[in-house]
């Protein structure tokens, strides 16, 4: 009877601890921080009293998070460091990984880059040991951003490559495979020509004909054939080379493709005066649920092909598509980044094309019109090629993230631009602008936005 009573008390304490922790979680996520602190404290005390050591540390970690949210950063840091010491003694590396994540957020808010770097490297080390890919990606991304902020671009790119590989970047295996296939076919055709000529020469040598004129005739014919095949092979090689170049240019900007062909590698570059465009179909999820896979792909292919043509006309570089999202940049290739009007006009042309064709694939199927938002921001970014056997050209930086926010803050059928883009094109006589207010960007403050449209000719 005594043992049963102790067991029931144990279960009762564990249930109380879990309930206190649940209440704390609910209040923390609804912004009632004082109530969250009260219940996490109760949970911590209950676990301590009954010897639930790890549960006590988890409750204590949650208390640290609440203190951070309340602005008591010194107390929060003290709690997190205390938990790390205890977790290290217990050998609980998973808990240490979680707490280092909490410390990273704390140090980033404090703008203490050195402590954030130390915590980030510890998070990366533990995530490697535990094979925890999500935390490894988070740590690599943080270290990239911190080193980019310190303008240590060599280390920044190192961690950027790590982040991209762990995050399963979009890769273009089919195009690389096609390039390889072209090369193999060219080598095979060349070998067949060589074999044919060798057989022909052997037949001439074995000929029993004594007539010198006949031998000379054969030699002349073979010479003519060899010349013909050589010329034919030359043009085939030129066509194959042109096709290979076209495939590379489908993946990479011209300057980057030339660098890769000439040196076998590329160097990441920073561009300080570029404009980034994001496009996103607003009601895509609703519409896609009403289409077959074939209809869905046909619809996206229809619009994206036209978008590609519009960008090419304006010398805008397409970067990638992700599902129904589309991304492009102006100013990273043989373009004048000061002519920002090109990417803005391209965005207006894309919206116009959608308006003229938005019912083409949907009128009898989804019974609704396809609409999209477009956002543009101008600033600095880093561009480069990542991957080895499967490579991808991509861009990174604050300007890319801000451009994405400008797009999501836009409206259907509109082109939304940041004030940085507006300053570049405000004197253009063929555009009209309307103020939109501003959005708050972390570590950047408020950024004003404008809708842009073409002036109506009366």
Task: Please provide a brief summary of the model.
The chain has 16 helices and eight strands.
What would the keywords be for this entry?
single chain; 458 residues; alpha+beta; Serine Threonine Protein Phosphatase 5, Tetratricopeptide repeat; Alpha-Beta Plaits; 3 domains; 8-stranded mixed sheet; 64% helix; disordered N terminus
Report what the structure shows:
Strands 1, 2, 3, 4, 5, 6, 7 and 8 form an eight-stranded mixed β-sheet that branches. The protein folds into three domains: 165 residues, Serine Threonine Protein Phosphatase 5, Tetratricopeptide repeat (Alpha Horseshoe), CATH 1.25.40.10; 79 residues; 190 residues, Nucleotide cyclase, GGDEF domain (Alpha-Beta Plaits, 2-Layer Sandwich), CATH 3.30.70.1230. Helix content is 64%, strand content 15%. It is an alpha+beta fold. The termini are far apart. A hairpin with a 3-residue loop joins strand 7 and strand 8.
Secondary-structure arrangement, i.e. CATH architecture of the largest domain: 2-Layer Sandwich
Q: CATH topology of the largest domain, what is it called?
A: Alpha-Beta Plaits
**Which structural category do the helix and sheet elements fall into?**
alpha+beta
Helix percentage: 55-70%
Radius of gyration, whole Å? 32 Å
Number of helices: 16
Instruction: Give a quick account of the main beta sheet: strands, pairing sense, barrel closure.
Output: 8 strands, mixed
Unreliable spans are 1-12, 169-184, 206-210
Spatial gap, N to C terminus: 95 Å
CATH hierarchy, class of the largest domain:
Alpha Beta
Instruction: Write the H/E string, N to C.
Output: HHHHHHHHHHHEHHEEHEEHEHEE
Shape: globular
Indicate the mean pLDDT. 77
- Note the beta-strand portion: 15-25%
The counted number of beta strands is 8
In CATH terms, the superfamily of the largest domain is Nucleotide cyclase, GGDEF domain
């Amino acid at each position: 009877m005594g043992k049963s009573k102790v067991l029931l008390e144990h279960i009762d304490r564990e249930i109380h601890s879990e309930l206190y922790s649940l209440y704390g979680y609910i209040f923390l996520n609804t912004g009632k921080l004082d109530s969250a602190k009260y219940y996490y404290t109760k949970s911590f005390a209950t676990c301590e009293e009954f010897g639930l050591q790890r549960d006590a540390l988890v409750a204590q970690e949650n208390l640290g998070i609440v203190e951070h949210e309340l602005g008591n950063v010194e107390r929060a840091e003290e709690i997190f460091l205390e938990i790390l010491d205890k977790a290290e003694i217990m050998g609980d590396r998973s808990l240490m990984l979680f707490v280092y994540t909490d410390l990273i957020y704390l140090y980033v808010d404090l703008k203490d880059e050195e402590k954030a770097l130390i915590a980030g490297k510890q998070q990366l080390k533990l995530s490697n040991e535990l094979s925890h890919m999500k935390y490894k990606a988070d740590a690599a991304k943080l270290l990239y951003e911190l080193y980019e902020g310190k303008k240590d671009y060599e280390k920044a790119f190192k961690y950027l490559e790590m982040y991209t590989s762990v995050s399963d970047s979009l890769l273009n295996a089919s195009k690389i495979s096609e390039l390889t296939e072209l090369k193999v076919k060219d080598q095979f055709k060349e070998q067949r020509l060589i074999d044919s000529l060798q057989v022909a020469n052997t037949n001439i040598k074995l000929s029993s004909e004594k007539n010198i004129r006949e031998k000379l005739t054969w030699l002349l014919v073979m010479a003519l054939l060899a010349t013909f095949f050589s010329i034919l092979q030359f043009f085939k090689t030129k066509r194959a080379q042109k096709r290979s170049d076209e495939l590379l240019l489908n993946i990479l900007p011209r300057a980057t493709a030339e660098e890769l062909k000439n040196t076998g590698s590329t160097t990441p570059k920073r561009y300080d005066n570029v404009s980034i465009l994001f496009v996103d179909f607003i009601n895509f999820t609703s519409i896609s649920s009403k289409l077959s896979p074939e209809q869905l792909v046909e619809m996206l292919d229809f619009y994206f092909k036209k978008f590609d043509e519009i960008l090419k006309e304006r010398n805008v570089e397409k970067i990638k598509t992700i599902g129904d999202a589309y991304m492009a940049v102006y100013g990273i290739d043989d373009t004048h980044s000061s002519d920002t009007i090109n990417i803005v006009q391209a965005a207006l042309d894309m919206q116009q094309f959608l308006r003229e064709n938005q019912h083409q694939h949907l009128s009898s199927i989804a019974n609704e019109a396809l609409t999209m938002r477009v956002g543009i921001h101008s600033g600095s970014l880093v561009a480069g090629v990542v991957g080895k056997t499967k490579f991808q050209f991509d861009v990174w930086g604050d300007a890319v993230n801000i451009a994405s926010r400008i797009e999501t803050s836009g409206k259907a059928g509109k082109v939304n631009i940041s004030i940085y883009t507006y300053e570049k094109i405000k004197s253009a006589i063929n555009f009209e602008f309307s103020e939109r207010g501003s959005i708050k960007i972390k570590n950047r403050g408020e950024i004003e936005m404008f809708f842009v449209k073409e002036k109506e000719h009366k």
